[in-house]
Write a structure and sequence with these properties.
The complex is a heterodimer of chains A (about 90) and B (about 90).
Chain A lengths: L6 H34 L12 H35 L1
Chain B lengths: L1 H4 L8 H27 L10 H43 L1
Helix pairs in contact in B: 2-3
The chains are: A mainly alpha (about 90), B mainly alpha (about 90).
Chain lengths: ~90, ~90
């Protein structure tokens, strides 16, 4: 990942990264919905989420967002460590 | 969908936003189909869905969309909290 990029290439890369962030955010959203429905929704007697399923979905999604953010932090730390190791 | 994006410093291309939104709904539909099939199929003895499976799929779809709404609220809350935290940190650094 050491190639030098021209100014315009760097700008394009930045724009791509911003766009991907958006897509990734929406993709995460869909994954969380699916994951939590799979884990929490167990009965199909009615069309509405019942008194167990609703809080389950809420807590499941909150945890999953937190877990994702935390993994992101650790990931960034490890990447940074690797970068400084390479320099030494 | 504009509530998703909040304040943007340099607005992204609106066509890109529209395409992304469509992709998101398509993805949602694909996942919903897959999950409701998984939850509702009871046997493979015949090619047609039986009555139970049909009403299960109706209810599953309804619940799935309700969950999608609820998760949207949670995500919005999480994002607002993260933004507030970031802002607080930036304020502290001044």
């Amino acid at each position: 990942m050491n190639q030098a990029l021209s100014q315009s290439q760097q700008q394009e890369l930045m724009r791509d990264m911003e766009n991907n962030q958006l897509k990734e955010s929406l993709s995460l959203y869909n994954r969380v919905v699916d994951q939590c429905v799979r884990e929490c929704v167990t009965s199909f007697k009615s069309k509405k989420l019942d008194s167990y399923e609703m809080p389950c979905v809420e807590n499941c999604s909150a945890k999953l967002f937190s877990a994702t953010a935390r993994v992101g932090q650790r990931f960034a730390e490890i990447q940074a460590q690797k970068a400084t190791q390479q320099q030494n | 969908m504009s509530s998703w994006f909040g304040q943007q410093s340099s607005g992204p291309d609106p066509l890109f936003l529209a395409k992304t939104e469509i992709e998101m709904y398509n993805d949602l539909f694909v996942k919903m189909s897959s999950t409701c099939f998984l939850k509702c199929r009871s046997n493979f003895k015949e090619p047609d869905l039986n009555i139970g499976e049909q009403s299960c799929i109706d209810r599953c779809s309804s619940k799935y969309m309700e969950a999608q709404e609820k998760v949207g609220e949670v995500m919005k809350r999480v994002n607002e909290q993260a933004e507030a935290q970031q802002k607080a940190m930036q304020d502290m650094q001044r």
